[in-house]
Structure formats: structure tokens, C-alpha cells
Specification:
Length: 418
């Protein structure tokens, strides 16, 4: 007996307390359908309709005020980053532990300048094998920059034979084994390929026990799962805002620096004028005095036009809150899983192994068989926007702001007809 039905999808949509938000986004139109079945909010979130108004505001202030916009604009650019203090709630932080600036990969390097300070004895980094490529290149270039050999300095952890994701206990054991040689544990919060949501709290505690730092790339976690970066004692984290946070291509990145480091002016960092003590920023004096908190890592004046799009999105997060988003995200994900299982029962051409463990956010990664690529092409031709990752994984991420249960049901109907 299938556990899903059109009726159930409709009921779930009717009960959905966030259902009106779909209308606040532009859903791209399909070739065959009025609206695509868009399941790649984990890659590029859709555009909030309000983004244009927010950007227009800054264009108008620039047009009408010129440089005066820094102090006399509606949202003065001088202190523009303060509008993003509520981002802290999205990741479970205190407001001065988070700042919004630059792009993600740039920020990872800046954070490693502060938090990867290897010595001849303590220089190793533990990370997951198959990390997102940018993260691999960041770590590779950082260890080389410090004069270490990659194979010696970096310990990449793989799942056990025959398994698709890492077990927490195995990561903890690797941390213990690295012991006082370990400088840094650097992991993603949610793995981009498998969708695994790592046990950040346990991993952080294990790293601290051996005297190492713990940092997380939360690109796939921010706006997707419930994070408590402050309480979990995470040392640093960064994320992009164009995935689950819907802030547009190349959108600005968020950074978390735990207050134990952020409020210590002696924490080493690369500095620029925008991180300087705000009340003296325009005095143009020599001698760097950092703003307390993560704001003291800023280099440049705010990239206001792209940040305006993020502001539009963040205001929606503020309105809804992570609890409601996570609640619906899990329901969508669970429904998707059931739909996939049901489709498989009714169509013997489908063979999926779901490789996303139970600890997850919105994403479901499905390992397919030799039919995988033709299935994916068939879905694409029918306006399902998912993504394909070599060798044969299809990733789908229905997201709570704009996906509906009916989206998922219709996806399942397409599967059955493959
Ligand atoms: C999306 C993503 C990136 C992208 O980095 P950019 O600097 O924003 O281009 C990096 N790391 C991870 C883990 C990602 O998921």
C-alpha cells in the first residue's frame, strides 16, 4: 500500500502555516508546466519578489544622494552591516558573533588566517573526504601556504566500506588519534553531496578536548537546519546566503566568530578600515583597533547592492523564524522520501538508494543505477529542476519557503511514468 496520495499532499498544503510564502517568490515557468518543480533551493534559492524593491531603494539613494547616502540614506551605508544582526538568529548566535561580508570562500581564508595557526608540532587538519571543491582548495592552499605537505597535514575521513556517510563515532576517534597534532577540525555543517547533517556539537567538543579549533562551513546548513553555533562552542563558521537563504547569485556571505575569540582584540586577523572601531573609522588614524565581535573582521565597505537582496530575504527569515522553517522542511523531506519509495514500488525501472542519513535537513540524495542519467534527463525535460552529481546521484531539496507538498506529489507521478 502506498503511503502517499494526492489527497494527502493537498491536505498537507492546506495545513501548512507557511503556504502563503510561495506567492512571495518568483517560481520560474516550465516548458510544459506553468511552474517548474524547483528542487534546487540548496544550490540557488529563488528570488523573493521583494528583492527588487530593496535593491531599488539603494539605487534611488545613490541616485539622489550620491556619497551622502553613507549617512543620510534611508538605510545608511556607513552602518549597513548592522541591518544583518538578525542573521545571528538563523545560526543560533549572539548578535555580535555574526557579520555579513564578502563571499564564502574569501571568508574561509580570512577565518583560517585567525584560526589555523599551525606550529611544527600541532599542524594537522581533519576534514571530510569529498568536501565541496572550494573547501578542498582552501585547505590545500592554506597548508601549503604554511609550508606543510598536504598528505601529511590533512587527514581526510571517508565513510566505512559499503557506507555512504561518516559515523560520528569514527570522526571522534580520528580526532582522538590525531591528539595534540591536531590544529583544526574543519567540516561542513550539512554535506553538500550526501545531505548529512553532522553532529556539530559532539565534533566541536571532541576537537576542543584535544586542544584543536573547530570550524564549520555552513553553506548547506544556514537557513536549512537548526543551528546553535554559540551554545555548541563552535570557534568559527561561514556560509553563503544564496542557497537556502535566497539572496541571489554570488550573494554575500555570513561569518560566525565565537565571542570568546571575537571579543578578544588580540585574536590575530587580517584587517581593513571597515573592521576598525566604528566611532573612529572615518578619523583615518594609524593603528588598527578592531570593532568588538565578528564585525572586527570586516575589510571593506559594505557591498550594498547585493546585500540589499540579502536584506529582503533576511527580513522574511526574521518574520517566520527557523523553528517554523525547520518544521516544514522536515515534513517536506519526509514526504519526498515516501513519494520516492512509493514510486519505486510501482515502477520497477526505478532503483534508488537514499544515501542521506536520518540526520538531515531538506535535501535528499538518491543514488541511482545505470538508468540514472536518462531518468535525470527525463525529469529535466518535464520541468523538474534537480541536480545531478557524478557518478550517479540525484539531489533534491524541497524548501519550506516556496515548495509545496503538491510539487513533490507531481514529481512522484513523473517518476512513476518513467
Ligand atoms: C556553495 C558552497 C561553496 C561556494 O563558495 P563561494 O565562495 O560562495 O563560491 C563553498 N563551500 C561549500 C561547502 C558550498 O556548499
Amino acid at each position: 500500500m502506498p503511503t502517499t496520495s494526492k489527497q494527502l499532499a493537498e491536505d498537507l498544503d492546506r495545513q501548512d502555516s507557511l503556504k502563503t510564502y510561495r506567492n512571495q517568490f518568483y517560481i520560474p515557468s516550465g516548458k510544459k508546466r506553468a511552474e517548474q518543480l524547483y528542487f534546487t533551493g540548496n544550490s540557488l534559492g529563488l528570488q523573493p519578489k521583494s528583492a527588487q524593491t530593496y535593491i531599488q531603494q539603494e539605487l534611488d539613494d545613490w541616485k539622489n544622494l550620491g556619497v551622502e547616502g553613507h549617512f543620510h540614506g534611508k538605510n545608511p551605508w556607513f552602518s549597513y552591516h548592522h541591518f544583518f544582526e538578525k542573521e545571528a538568529k538563523v545560526v543560533g548566535a549572539n548578535k555580535d558573533e555574526v557579520v555579513v561580508m564578502n563571499n564564502l570562500t574569501v571568508n574561509l581564508h580570512l577565518l583560517l588566517v585567525s584560526f589555523y595557526r599551525p606550529s611544527s608540532k600541532r599542524y594537522k587538519i581533519i576534514m571530510e573526504a569529498g568536501a565541496f571543491p572550494s573547501d578542498m582548495y582552501v585547505i590545500e592552499s592554506q597548508v601549503k601556504h604554511h609550508g606543510f605537505d598536504y598528505d601529511d597535514a590533512v587527514i581526510e575521513l571517508e565513510p566505512r566500506q559499503g557506507e555512504h556517510h561518516l559515523r560520528t563515532e569514527d570522526i571522534v576517534q580520528a580526532i582522538d588519534e590525531a591528539g595534540d597534532e591536531l590544529a583544526l577540525l574543519f567540516f561542513s555543517g550539512v554535506q553538500y553531496y550526501t545531505g548529512q547533517y553532522f553532529d556539530i556539537q559532539t565534533l566541536t567538543a571532541a576537537a576542543h578536548k584535544v586542544g584543536a579549533m573547530a570550524g564549520f562551513d555552513c553553506a548547506h546548513a544556514a537557513g536549512n537546519v537548526k543551528l546553535q553555533l554559540h551554545d555548541w562552542q563552535v570557534d568559527f563558521a561561514a556560509w553563503c546566503t544564496y542557497k537556502y537563504m535566497n539572496s541571489g547569485p554570488g550573494g554575500v556571505s555570513g561569518v560566525f566568530i565565537h565571542e570568546k575569540h571575537g571579543n578578544n582584540p588580540d585574536t590575530l586577523r587580517f584587517a581593513g578600515w571597515w573592521g576598525h572601531k566604528e566611532s573612529e573609522r572615518f578619523l583615518m588614524k594609524r593603528g588598527y583597533i578592531p570593532e568588538p565581535g565578528a564585525a572586527g573582521w570586516q575589510l571593506s565597505n559594505a557591498s550594498v547592492i547585493t546585500m540589499a537582496a540579502h536584506k529582503a530575504s533576511l527580513d522574511m527569515f526574521e518574520e517566520v523564524g527557523m523553528d517554523a522553517l525547520v518544521f516544514k522542511g522536515q515534513k517536506l523531506n519526509h514526504f519526498l522520501q515516501q513519494v520516492v519509495i512509493d514510486a519505486q514500488i510501482s515502477n520497477s525501472k526505478l532503483a534508488f538508494e537514499i544515501i542521506t542519513p536520518e540526520d538531515r535537513g531538506c535535501q535528499l540524495s538518491m543514488l541511482t543505477n545505470e538508468n540514472g542519467k536518462s531518468l535525470f534527463d527525463y525529469l529535466t525535460a518535464n520541468d523538474v529542476i534537480a541536480d545531478w552529481r557524478e557518478p550517479n546521484v540525484i539531489r533534491l531539496a524541497p524548501v519550506p519557503f516556496y515548495n509545496s507538498f503538491i510539487d513533490i506529489w507531481e514529481f512522484g507521478e513523473l517518476l512513476k511514468k518513467f
